[in-house]
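I hope you will forgive my troubling you with a question about protein structure. Could you please explain, in whatever detail you think fit, how the structure tokens follow from the sequence? Thank you for your consideration; the sequence and its tokens are set out here.
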Amino acid sequence: MKLNAYLLKSTVVAALGGLLFGFDTAVIAGATRALTTTFALSPTALGITVASALYGTILGAMFAGIPGDKFGRRLSLRVLAVFYFLSAIGCAFAWDWNSFVLSRFLGGLAIGGSSVLGPMYIAEIAPARYRGRLVGFFQFNIVFGILLAYFSNYLMGLASLGDAEWRWKLGVAAVPAAFFLLMLFTIPESPRWLVKMRRVPEARDVLRLTGETSYEEDLQNIVTS
């Protein structure tokens, strides 16, 4: 079989979680000096501020599989996209240190959760012969997101935004987060999860639409497993 547009789009959309992963992890590097001044942070408080997203990442990665199994990979990714969006908006409009840290923590939950559910979704929708390459695209997007974060910070620095510059640097992530959320309504659910929920006809349709020629055989393998 060949890669078709339906499979490719589903992979690219799921991999946007990886791009946001990289972007949100790295973007704060361009705001640490401004955050220190704005919130009068000590070195310890600055360390907590930067690490707040990482704390959320650990919890997100540990527990994302639970809603992913119960409610589906796609729906859970939608919730994480909302978390990404709220985190960016919360950082942009943070009125004190506590609200900023909470917003970063929420973004960390999204980072950790998407690092589990994004590759899981791609692996479950991709045919075996393309699985490694397509899942690898999620990892590529993490690195690309980091690069994009530094480039975005550079552009924001050229814009002469004054004291609000750090808010723009962090808040701009709301745009790709909103796009991620919207695009998640255009892709199918994981066929493996559908089979687990005894929605076998829907799983068959997804496998057929992704271009798998032996979709009946693949469906039976999923049912058996």
Remarks:
- The CA atoms of residues 20 and 176 lie 7 Å apart.
- The two ends are 23 Å apart (CA to CA).
- The chain has a mean pLDDT of 93.
- Residues 97-125 form the longest helix (29 residues).
